[in-house]
Amino acid sequence: MNFLASLPPVLYLISSVMFTLGIKRLSKVKTARQGNTLAALAMLLAVIGTALELGWVDPTFILGGLVVGTAIGAWTALTVKMTAMPEMVALFNGSGGAASALVALASYAGLREKGLIGTGVKVFEGGTLPAGVQVFVLLGSIVVGAVTLSGSLVAWGKLQGRLAKGKPILLPARHALSVALLMSIIGVGVWFGVGTAEFGTSALWIVTGLSLLLGGLLVLPIGGADMPVVVSLLNSYSGIAAAAAGFLVGNPVLVVAGTMVGAAGLILTRIMSDAMNRSLANVLVGGFGQTDAAGGAADEGYEGVTQAGPEEAAMILEGAQSVIIVPGYGLAVAQAQHVCKELGELLIKRGVQVSYAIHPVAGRMPGHMNVLLAEADVPYDLLYDMDAIAGSFKQTDVCIVVGANDVVNPAAANDPSSPIFGMPILPAHEAQTVMVIKRSLSPGYAGIKNSLFEADNTLMLFADAKKMLTDLVAEVKEL
Amino acid sequence: MIMGPLLMGLYVLVLAAFLGFELINKVPPTLHTPLMSGANAISGITLVGAITVAAGGDPTLARWLAAAAVATATINVVGGFLVTDRMLKMFRRKK
Question: Which residue, A191, A281, B37, B78, has fewest beta-carbon neighbours within 10 Å?
Answer without folding.
Answer: A281
